[in-house]
Design goal:
The chain is mainly alpha-helical. 84% of the residues lie in helices and 0% in strands.
Length: 69
């Protein structure tokens, strides 16, 4: 479900190619499995929430550093 949730937003602003949608589906499905494993292993939502925050924030910071505010 995590992977499917991210397909439309990823392809909405782009050319909407099937390859982009498939790549997004694969990458976010793997991320969802990792987040689920973190949830089970830690018995808490804190670990997967922090991991999701990191996967969203780190690329944003890198882009900001490369291209400026």
């Amino acid at each position: 479900m995590f992977g499917l949730w991210h397909v439309f937003p990823a392809t909405r602003g782009a050319d909407g190619s099937a390859l982009l949608g498939l790549g997004t589906l694969v990458a976010t499905t793997i991320a969802g499995l990792v987040f689920g494993a973190l949830r089970v292993r830690s018995d808490s939502l804190v670990a997967p929430s922090l991991a999701h925050l990191a996967t969203n924030t780190i690329p944003l910071i890198v882009a900001w550093l490369v291209h400026g505010p």
